[in-house]
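2024-03-11 09:14:02 INFO worker-7 job=invfold-0412 stage=load source=structure_tokens
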């Protein structure tokens, strides 16, 4: 069982930055592919970014490429999402997710989810 706890959400103006963090309880954290997803009311959850367990291979939603960066610190069991040049369309609840093994370019198969953190970008 893996527990995930997100932090770092908040309110920011368009063009600003936020960094989300996700602390994981897994003893084998480095063997988990980690992902970030987001959801707005009335819409399905959307893949944002993912990173492999140890090699650091990443995958991004096209609309966030060049603005968002996912990275991890396996020594701290934490994955981050650095979000720059934020836009109002980025407003959503952001969720951290984990899957044992797997690859970041497959956006399904996540077994564990955090509770989410709200990101609001004002015009």
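2024-03-11 09:14:09 INFO worker-7 stage=emit residues=123
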């Amino acid at each position: 069982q893996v527990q995930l706890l997100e932090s770092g959400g908040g309110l920011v103006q368009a063009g600003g930055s936020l960094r989300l963090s996700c602390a994981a309880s897994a003893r084998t954290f480095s063997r988990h592919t980690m992902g970030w997803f987001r959801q707005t009311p009335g819409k399905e959850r959307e893949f944002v970014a993912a990173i492999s367990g140890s090699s650091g291979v990443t995958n991004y939603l096209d609309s966030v490429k060049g603005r968002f960066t996912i990275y991890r610190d396996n020594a701290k069991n934490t994955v981050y999402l650095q979000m720059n040049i934020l836009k109002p369309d980025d407003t959503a609840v952001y969720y951290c997710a984990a899957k044992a093994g797997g690859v970041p370019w497959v956006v399904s198969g996540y077994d564990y989810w955090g509770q989410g953190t709200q990101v609001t970008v004002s015009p």
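2024-03-11 09:14:09 INFO worker-7 stage=report msg="The longest strand covers residues 92-100."
2024-03-11 09:14:10 INFO worker-7 job finished
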